[in-house]
Amino acid sequence: MLSLGQLIPFLLAVALIELTPGPNMGYLAVVASQSGRAAGMATVAGITIGLVIYLLASVFGLSEAALRWPWIYQTLRWAGVAYLIWLAVDTWRGASSKVPAPDHRSLFLRGLLNNLLNPKAAVFYVALLPGFVRPQDGQLLVQALVLGAIHITISVLIHTTIVLTASHARSVLQGGDTGKSPVILQRAFAIGLAAIALWLAVSTPELAAVPSHALP
Predict the structure, then answer these.
(1) d(C-alpha 77, C-alpha 73), whole Å
(2) DSSP helix, strand, coil percent of the chain (3-state; round to 5)
(3) Is 55 within 8 Å of 118 (Cβ atoms)?
(4) What is the maximum alpha-carbon separation in the chain?
């Protein structure tokens, strides 16, 4: 169904995209370092559902709307930047307070929202995934679903690794004489989230409108 000439470039693109620091990486590190592995995995579940929603939207033609009307993508892009800044402020303020950790349902919903407002996910499913589907091979729906499933699987593996690493670091810090280390770490993550928001604001591409006759 998928040729090596189609699959290898796709895998390289997915690896580069998923290993590039972005909103999901930063937020998962924050959650796992603050609240532990189970909380981090609840967030991974929300992020994964967000990817599934993007995949289905792309497969069933909503990506064409973003290509025809770029303001849809731009609205998503700037909402994602604003959401990351809010998360950075919330993380900074929570570093020195005793606010109870969010429950797993709240973390799931935050992970879902974080990914739905993630410009990297939007670019991948709106602009990149359709380019790896080959009309001449037929079964366009099947091709898109298989490629999307591969991307989601790789994403889950990388996100789980981040959660396990950050939760282990949390255990190490809690086990030593490092009373101020968790606060410093959380504030470092807050600065990191703010930096990612700035990076997304200046580096994510703007989609130019595509004439309707050029759309498939």
Answers:
(1) 6
(2) 80, 0, 20
(3) no
(4) 65
Angle of helix 23-35 relative to helix 70-95, nearest 10 degrees? Answer: 20
pTM: 0.71
Q: List domains and CATH numbers for the chain.
A: 17-205 (1.20.1250)
Separation in Å, CA 167 to CA 28, 161, 209 = 10, 10, 43
- pLDDT greater than 80 at residue 131: no
Asked whether residue 1 carries a pLDDT value surpassing 70, the answer given is: no
d(CA 202, CA 200): 6
**Token pair in block for residue 157:** 């593996």
Q: For residues 133 and 122, give the distance between their C-alpha atoms in angstroms, rounded to a whole number.
A: 17
